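User: Structure please.
Assistant: Input sequence and predicted structure:
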Amino acid sequence: MKNFLNLIRVHQWVKNVFVFLPVFFSGKLLMSEYYFPAILGFVIFSFISSCVYILNDYRDVEADRLHPEKKNRPLASGAIAPKTALIVMALLFTVAIGLCLYFATWKVLVIVLVYFGLNIGYSFGWKHIPVIDVNIIAFGFLLRVFLGGYITGLPISDWTVVLTYSLALILALGKRRGEVLNEEIKGNTRKSLEGYNKSYLNTALAVTCSITIVFYVMFVLADEVQERFHHYVFYTFVFVVLAILRYLQQTIVFNKTESPTKMVYKDVFLQMIFLAWVVSFTLLIYFK
């Protein structure tokens, strides 16, 4: 069972909490009628993203066997046969599409199919195109937010789109930097990392982090945001700055962002910052 859980990468499902953002920011989190569609959206995206992970592992099995950590993945290690992995992928895909057709709208189905199609392109070559690859990853997070909005029938603000995209781009660039560093240590370069180097990624990260902070400050200073929440929402920018600085420290000083998900799970300081931001925003939205 452990091998199958690793195959579908259950630990990566934490990324799909972006599905809940429309419910959270709309102030509907305490309304029970939104629970089922939001959770359903999370399940659908978790299943379809697991299909993508299996496809990537199937395509990269030979390269993964040469990687110090990825060699332990179920397909690379031989714990699960390729044919079995494809069967699991087909089952997950069928269930995800079935849930869309039975419970959701055609818009949700389109988002799921676009995400899957985009990642097929990513697995079969687009990941080898510098800049395009990290933007595909960032767009995948946007699709999570869009699915959350369409499946619950809640609007998605322009600020949510901009901030989600820039934040996801930070994570993607940090991941690429970790991979580049790992390849430099081993003394070779994978095709997927051609067009990147540490200097370029450091600059790209600095630019993207700066833009994200500016976007967030503009967001909390916007008249409609201050009217909807409270003037005190402005002070939440402190948590965003702290979180970004901590992520840059983990990336540039400690080189721990080749796997952003693993870093988030292990970094207590980053978890505390995120929790403080969630609590402060929750109080401003629901208890003002």
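The chain has a mean pLDDT of 88.
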